[in-house]
## 1
Amino acid sequence: MNAKSHKLRPGLILILIFFLGGVVLSRLFYLQINEGAKYKAFAMGQQNNVLDVEGRRGDVYFSNGESLALTERDPLVFVSPEEVEDKEKAAEKLSEILSIDKTEIMEKMNKQGSYYQVIQRSVSKEIAERIKTLNMKGVAIDEKKEKRYYPNNQTASQVIGFLNEDKKGQYGIEEFYNDKLSGKKAATTVDRNPWGFVFKPEDTSSLNGNSLTLTIDYNIQFMAEKYLAEGIEKYGAVGGNIIVMNPNTGEIIAMAQNPSFDPNNYKKEKFEVISNSSTQKIFEPGSIFKPITMSIGVNEKLVTPEDTFEDSGCVPYGKYNVCNYAEKAWGTVTMTEVLRRSINTGVMYVEKKIGHKKFLDYLEEFGFFDKTGIDLANESFSENKTLKKAYNDKVEIAFANASFGQGIGITPLHIITAFSCLTNGGNLMRPYIVREITDNNTKKEVQPQIVRRVISEDTSTNLRKMLVQVVEGGYGHLAKIPGYWIGGKTGTSQVPYASLGINKAGYSDHTWQTFMGFAPAYNPKFIVLVKLDNPTKTKTSEYSAVPIFHDLAKYIFDYWQIPPDYDVEELESGLDKK
């Protein structure tokens, strides 16, 4: 019996093995074949996660490709305590590189069960590279986070604006084009390792925001800011602006402002500094407005450049007298001399011939009662309700003052845009600052836009000739550059108490000193507005804003290699013979 059992045992064991194997195979078949799809999905659900991702914010460049705003990696140093092999050594090395107390690092190193402890955020590229070269297990750099970076610091700061902590653009380009610059958001699947770390998600470059190329020339912008800063110091001003525009297209070539700020450190700045006073601050332009009034009279054929009038120096309006500068009387003068000598009573005479209603209608055509439409955030404008009310109330003196730029509020951008009509043949152009928009390597070029025709080509030709005389023999003489015909107009206007934040009617002894110049005068390539806020070392713009224009115009002539209008030696030789 025992012998028989001994013989049966191997067979029973074999049968048992086959039986168990069959059970296992049957179970495997059930799990892998019948229920395979379900368990595969379950496993994928544990290892894969749906993650919200956002494309990279688009970059912003100057016209020649120099960077104005970039999105770059914002590396941080972290450790995985469970993976660090020599914590003492790692803490010592990190302390040395990061200038952090070693005990502080050790506290994070000793976090049991942790695979991710941040040691320091926003480290420089140089420090990040030093950490990488340590090649220590469990010590690493996380470069997933991004930050906005402005490599030129204060250059064109009010133009670009900044990106706030909520990743929204504020002011300037960043705010106006926020939707285009922002990366698109989408959901994507990512893999996680057993410790929960996310592996790199799939390529998200298709979600990246648009990049922008501006009309602003970096070199001209840089020089405009340089000359402006030097002029403010030299003439004792509190601030100022320079705008350079192509009068034929509306392209902004430069838009400088002082004081300026660093968009990389915007939090400490006041609104007055970060806002763009070229587009957001109202001022009274003064005598640079006179050519606007004169152009209306010429366009309506009410006056010609050669027409004369008798100047007595002052004109009475009730109990007030409206006078020329220093109450000077010029006698019999032509309309050209009215601009050349900047005679207040002369443009008052022209405005009276035009009529207040038509004068207001033209101001609207020139765009003074609405936004210019520039592609920058928060553009301001004044409806000039006081002047309109003066028409209804028949307040004559208000129109006398407005004819030479007092009592009418506009932005620097408004006056240079309107003045461009006088130089480009009569068209009001929409000013713009973005030339090209790039979306995933597809480029869209922004085209110039004519808003409307305001004056005729003949009127524009006449005004150019008249304004050349301001530079050749008038208060703009310091703008002259040998070999070139330059047109322009000076302006010195009083600052209302209200503009200084003083609750008081009337005007202070502060001034805005301005010069509007364009060149070459008979085929303009650029127009420049120089505006200084209350220079204290000179009384008029003839000796402040005009010299700044001269230096910047000379730079642009050389930089753009604009050929001269005439040979200086030949011209002087001809004059000598006469």
## 2
Amino acid sequence: MNLRKRRGALVAAGIAAAMVLSACGGSDDNGGEGGGGKSGGTFSAYISEPKSPLVPGNTTESEGAKVIAALWTGLVGYSEDGEVEYSGVADSIESEDNQNWTIKLKDGWTFHDGTPVDAESFVNAWNYTANPQNAQDGGSYLSRIAGYDELEAGTATELSGLKVEDDQTFTVELKAPFALFPAVVGYDAFNPLPKAFFDDPEGFGTKPIGNGPFQADGEFVPGQGIKVKRFEDYAGEDKAKADGIDFVVYADQATAYTDAQDGNVDIVDVIPPDVIESAKDEFGDGFINTEVSQITYLGFPTYDARFQDPRVRQAISMAIDRDAISKAIFSGTRTAADSFVSPAVDGYREGSCAYCELDVDKANALLDEAGFDRSKPVELWFNAGAGHDAWLEAVGNQLRQNLDVDFQLKGDLDFSQYLPLGENKGFTGPFRYGWSFDYPAAESYLTPLFTPQSFPPTGSNYSFYSNEKVVDLIAEGDKAESEDEAIKAYQQAEDLIAEDMPMAPLFFTQIQTVATDHVSNVRIDLFQRPVWSEVTVND
């Protein structure tokens, strides 16, 4: 697996850019041409059951995010190389000090119900998402905005750092300088919301109203999915080619793959590991292999007394032969992770995770030092129906062989049940976790996963790990005036995380997608999502 790394670009914030750390990605096109125009026709796509209703600020997991990507367009977009592009609603995002930002919007954008996408629709959405009373999963992404601490304390109901200047302009004051701000606001949690949302926040996610290239064509039905159709008045450049998409919920990834073989679903974005080799021959040009930004982790419940000692977590990590699992289970399409930051972004250092190396003798010594009870099995948690059974069983077998610790697989919960269990500190052993960056930067692998501001339910720190030195170093990187200074601080934070080992990085990821001959021009983006607007229907 060749993981390429491209250099990012640091452009002065005064000309409305930021320290954008680039990412690698790409796919083998399934025929067709990109760009404008439309082909008509509809196609279908596999998703698992989303955790929450389809609201951008409450959707931080992969399955709901696939649908959000079709229904919404944010302030900025990203090129295939990870550069910020002003292809979204923002005309400019400018600052003279990286702390006080002015965002100007383009004219002509509307929501699917015809109401305008204006400054108020962003400010109101951000205030709602940030307020902990609303328990939005993406709330922590707004934590850098002035007034967030007061919201958390319950002494305010709105972010003091947001101000509507006019219909097309709003200002943002951050608590401290942050050069990456223009890159961050392309993430879903920063998407706008129409007035209709605030009339019925509870029901909105069933039939969402966004501003993206597709609009809801009926309600989302749990266990079934949602149909969307092309939004004819879409103001963006990436207008949808197809007439519509049928997002079909499957409880089991293998069933979705079988349906693709039979022509009953057109796109399965991630196929089961055991069919990777055969899928190449069966789907031909419809087999798409993509390098993505994802890291697969084995997370640890640091709140559980059995896993509170870092030596236990270090030992389990060092007892896992990542290369052997990649070869045996994933046909070699995973690379053994040796860092908490993906090679897809600047800031990656080869071998920065010392405890990611296989060392059985040292692992056993660490377990002995920690006084770990080897007579009690380790429970390995993962979500059902997504192809994780085999590789987590392989992890368990290695723990049994290398550490003399037995295991039990806990893989009975579907995705929509699995994450809420983690939010409520329900994992009683190591758990499967996957993370793709939310924006192309090394910091996106640190703040959302390893800081207390990202504790669930308003964040994604499911290990509930906290280290104030890590928080301080990330803040130092955020304030840096140069890319090199920022990366240096982020790497120092990563070193502390690697020593504490709240999660064990296991694999850097390629994903394998299949598409039927009913569709072409299927591309997987940096965020591990099909680019829905580009897909063309062949008949």
## 3
Amino acid sequence: MIKGIAASPGIAIGEIFIKKEDEAVIEKTKIKDAEKEIKKLEEAVKQSKTELREIYEKTLKNIGKEEAKIFEAHQLILEDPELLGKTKEMISKNKENAACALNKITEEFLSVFEAMGEGYLRERAADLKDVVERVSRKLVGVGGTDFNSIKERSIIVARDLTPSDTAQMDKEKVIGFVTETGGSTSHSAIMARTMEIPAVTGVSNIMGQVENGDLIVMDGTIGEICIRPDKKTLDTYEKRKTKYEETKRKLKTMIGKKTLTHDNHKVEISSNIGTPEDLEGVVLNDGEGIGLFRSEFLYMNRREAPGEEEQYEAYKKAAQTMEGKPVVIRTLDVGGDKEISYLSLPKEMNPFLGYRAIRVCLREVELFKTQLRALLRSSAHGNIKIMFPMISSIEEVRRAKSILKDCKEELRKEGARFDESIEVGIMIEIPAAALISDMLSKEVDFFSIGTNDLIQYTTAVDRMNNTISNLYTPYHPALLRLIKMVIDNGHKEGKWVGMCGESAGDFKLIPIWLGMGLDEFSMSAGSILRARWIINQLSKEMMEKEAEKVLGMLSSEEIESYLHELAIKMGIDKV
């Protein structure tokens, strides 16, 4: 067996189709006519734009609106005056050929991304590489892979797959893909999950181990592949595939059911979304609300901030689609790994500890008020709740609430409708907030625990740093104690407490969060039915005892091992 990264769940068995392309060899040559070379660049850009529009239309039709937006962003890259302007300037000044100049300017851009960290910026770098490679191929006269030649039931093996590669796959023929590079958060991985195609990424040197037509079996749920399997391995995978499909059908029976434990304790299973287009998946998976609407995605891949009306329409759509179910919208959370060029945020040595999230909003008051007004107005159409991110002090909460109060007063004078008693909460993602959660609970209506950052800030581990990734763990005793403290302090003031980090959907941790008293679990839409099935198998009273045991353990390893055995014992490890 060969291990990789579990990028998209599912099991596939099929023949390999290797994605091979003639390399776009870029050589530096001196040119005599700079204007002619610039026109050559402009023609390559024009052709690339045409292709991207075609891919956009195909993606919109076959995959979805949200996935198609990737190619809108790609077209914007080709309109970036700085990228093309600097390339043209280099052609004119240094008399370099267009392909070489474009490659050099692109490397400058990529070095800036790398200096600022990974995460969201890593995907922006991937987008830039994808677009520039398309233009470069035009400039040097090299074609791409012909995906039309793929046979039925093929598994694509590639060094890398760009979003445009994934968009051009025929879902009727492609049943999985394996790549040497990429991760679970890459655009291609996200698109694979949307298309329900199993994917395993990060498989070292896979291209050197396979040939076209080889049989391969893969499990995208655990990130495992086997090349040229023997009969015993093939039989094992056939059985696992059958069981996986049966589990999917079983989970579908959870639609329409309450999330209720054996001893009649009810909790809420909500979903995290980035844009209104994600709502479809929440509805299909019977989500009980939106636990986190990441509003910053409305601000990205554009030249200026969205206005009040545009935001109002987006939030209103979420409120109306959820038909009275809670919709928690996080106010603008930028900085860190989420850069927005038009905001001109300063370049920082450590952006995750810098000028980001609520800190930006409390300085950019007009930007903040535009969003708050839109949120308030949308609350007239459903159960909207407002949540402030990266809170570390009571002063920040009070200042944010004061600005919200001003917005309410403005809207009253204008005669605009909004929910006068709209709930206001905060994310608990900084240890300082967790430690004063007894005081903060008197200031807000709810807490939502953001485990992704809380783990990182509590353990001093950059969650994007592969070198120390083994230290980034949701099983750390300090983290579990902080979370229990937050839940208890919220409940003492009669406030509900949710969780919107990745750990909310972890099958090993769900029983412990339940035992600690968590009221709301928010996760990706595809995890909702699985979490509901798990909770419906449990007893709240029994999980309280298990949580107490875990809170007394000394190490991450001990806790994870115990929870793994507990999951097996309770039979919840198979879903």
